C-alpha cells in the first residue's frame, strides 16, 4: 500500500495512513494537525510553506500532477526514498489542500546505488589493467627498436633477428590499438554510470 499524506489549506497534516507511519516512523497522532514541513529533510523546511502557497496562488504545476523520487527524512534521522505523486483538492468552500501518494523505493534505491559503486570499481580495475598493458606495449616497442638497430649493425647475420624485431613491434602497436579501444569503452561506461547515478539521485521537494 502507498503511503498517503494529506494537508489542509494551512499546510497542516490532516491524514496520515499506516503506510506513511511505516515510511516515516511516526505515529499518526504525532503528526496530525502539525505543519507538513516536519516530514521534510531539514534543508527543505524553511521554503516549503512559501512553495506550496505560491502554487495555490499561481496554479503552476511544477510538481503537482507529476511523479518523482524524493528523499524521506525519517523520525530516527535516517533517510528513506520514495516515489512521490502529488494531487490537489479543493473543498466546496474553495479551500485548497494537497494529498501526497508515496511508494517506498528505499530498497530499490539502495540496490541501484550498490550497482553503481560495483560498476565504478570494475571500470577502475579495467582502467588500471589497460594502463599496465600500455606500459608493457611501450617497453616492448622500445626493445624492438633497439633490437632492429643491433640487427642492422650485424649485417646479414642479424637479418633474421631484425624480422623478428619488426613482428614484435607490430604486435606492440596492435596492443596499443586494442588498449585504446578498451579505454574508449571504459569512458563510455563511466558516462553511462554517471547518468545512472544522476537519475538515482532524488530531486524536488517531498510531501
Automatic annotation (TrEMBL):
The keyword Lipid biosynthesis does not apply. The keyword Cytoplasm does not apply. PROSITE patterns: CHEMOTAXIS_TRANSDUC_2 (PS50111), PAS (PS50112). Residues 1-59 form the PAS domain. InterPro entries: Chemotax_Me-accpt_rcpt, MCPsignal_dom, PAS, PAS-like_dom_sf, PAS_fold. Keywords: Transducer. Gene3D superfamilies: 6.10.250.3200, PAS domain. Residues 102-207 form the Methyl-accepting transducer domain. Belongs to the methyl-accepting chemotaxis (MCP) protein family. This is Methyl-accepting chemotaxis protein. It comes from Sulfitobacter porphyrae.
Amino acid at each position: 500500500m502507498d503511503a498517503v499524506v494529506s494537508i489542509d489549506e494551512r499546510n497542516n497534516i490532516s491524514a496520515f495512513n499506516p503506510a506513511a507511519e511505516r515510511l516515516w516512523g511516526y505515529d499518526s497522532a504525532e503528526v496530525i494537525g502539525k505543519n507538513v514541513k516536519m516530514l521534510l529533510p531539514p534543508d527543505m523546511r524553511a521554503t516549503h510553506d512559501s512553495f506550496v502557497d505560491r502554487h495555490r496562488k499561481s496554479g503552476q504545476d511544477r510538481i503537482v500532477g507529476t511523479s518523482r523520487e524524493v528523499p524521506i527524512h525519517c523520525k530516527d534521522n535516517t533517510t528513506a526514498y520514495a516515489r512521490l505523486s502529488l494531487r490537489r483538492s479543493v473543498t466546496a468552500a474553495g479551500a485548497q489542500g494537497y494529498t501526497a501518494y508515496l511508494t517506498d523505493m528505499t530498497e530499490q534505491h539502495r540496490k541501484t546505488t550498490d550497482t553503481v559503486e560495483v560498476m565504478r570499481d570494475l571500470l577502475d580495475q579495467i582502467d588500471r589493467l589497460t594502463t599496465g598493458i600500455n606500459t608493457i606495449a611501450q617497453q616492448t616497442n622500445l626493445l624492438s627498436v633497439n633490437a632492429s638497430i643491433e640487427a642492422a649493425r650485424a649485417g646479414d647475420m642479424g637479418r633474421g633477428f631484425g624480422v623478428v624485431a619488426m613482428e614484435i613491434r607490430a604486435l606492440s602497436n596492435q596492443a596499443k590499438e586494442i588498449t585504446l579501444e578498451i579505454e574508449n569503452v571504459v569512458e563510455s561506461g563511466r558516462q553511462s554510470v554517471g547518468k545512472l547515478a544522476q537519475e538515482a539521485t532524488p530531486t524536488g521537494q517531498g510531501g
